[in-house]
Amino acid sequence: MHYFYIILSSLLLTLSCCGMSAESENIVYYPAQDSVKCEEILTHTFGSKPVSTTDVAKQFLATPYQGGTLDREQTEGIVVRFDSLDCTTFVETVTALTRCINKGVTDFNPFVKELEMIRYRNGVCNGYESRLHYFSEWIYNNQTMGIVEEILPNDLITTEQRSINFMSLNADRYKGITSDTILNEIEATEAYLSAQPFTYIPKHKVALLTKETIKEGDIIAIVTDIKGLDISHVGFATFVDGKIHLLHASSAKKEIIIDPLPLSEYLAKFKHHKGIKVARVII
């Protein structure tokens, strides 16, 4: 697939080839048709304001699932894809679009900057190690920047200490870990996350969640018991006949769907699913 490139700078100039800015050296990779699709969604007439994440997410229903789209280039850059998404890039793309729409943004370049804010530590793409690989850190970092708020219903949560080290233990699986320096940065992030209390809603309590606690469009992050990992899947909460369902990029169905099972039943299907973390996008 042919990609166009832009270099983010304070002027947000659009270029048709690789280049360099005095302000920033971050390359943005995108198929040309996806910049058009982006602006179509940004200028789409939604029924009411503020626009919710599920209003935007439903624009992607039946879009193909595809993993690994962030790891195809030798140089870390901001990848924009609308033609195929995995669970995390789906959540990031929809979150960025929703925030842009509610701020009146109609152009591609400001959307790219919003996506960078969401995807990278402290909002700055500075190499592979700056990407928020662990979704628990994704929630924490985006909460620090005022982009999301973690929802912690006191009567339903449990807290434990977790050892998070999946990436460093499986470094050979990650093509972006190309040096000891990058690996050391990943290990430092893991050590920090492992030192934090890990709070979530166990799956046997998810059926107790109501519309007073979980809102349409909240981000649902599924907690796993896979050794060294925190979150294994993400999507959005949407209500169907009064019950919470998951609107997500499904690797099983190979496309973006509203899962036919209520969230509590969906979680019960998978032995490694322990529960959920919930984050609300601030719009």
Overall description:
The chain is an alpha+beta fold and about 280 residues long. It folds into 2 domains: about 5-140, Putative xylanase fold (Orthogonal Bundle); about 145-280, Roll (putative xylanase like fold), CATH 2.30.260.10. The chain contains 8 helices and 11 strands. The protein has helices at about 30-40, 55, 85-100, 110-120, 135-145, 165-170, 180-195, 265-270, and strands spanning about 5, 25-30, 80, 150, 160, 195-200, 220-225, 230-240, 245-250, 255-260, 275-280. Strands 4, 5, 6, 7, 8, 9, 10 and 11 form an 8-stranded antiparallel sheet that branches. Strands 1-2-3 form a 3-stranded mixed sheet. Strand 8 and strand 9 (about 245-250) form a beta hairpin. Helix 3 (about 85-100) crosses helix 4. The two termini are about 35 Å apart.
Structure, briefly:
With 283 residues, this protein is α+β, with helices and mostly antiparallel strands. It has 8 helices and 11 strands. Strands 4, 5, 6, 7, 8, 9, 10 and 11 form an 8-stranded antiparallel β-sheet that branches.
Beta percentage is 15-25%
Q: Could you tell me the mean pLDDT?
A: 91
Give the beta-strand count.
Answer: 11
CATH first level of the largest domain? Mainly Alpha
- The best one-word shape is globular
Number of helices: 8
Range of helix content: 25-40%
Q: What is the second-level CATH architecture of the largest domain?
A: Orthogonal Bundle
Rg over CA atoms, rounded to whole Å, is: 18 Å
Distance between the termini: 34 Å
* Unreliable stretches covering 5 or more consecutive residues: 7-24
Q: What order do the helices and strands follow? A: EEHHEHHHEEHHEEEEEHE
Biggest sheet architecture: 8 strands, antiparallel
CATH superfamily of the largest domain: Putative xylanase like domain
**SS-based structural class?**
alpha+beta
CATH topology of the largest domain: Putative xylanase fold
Question: How many separate domains?
Answer: 2
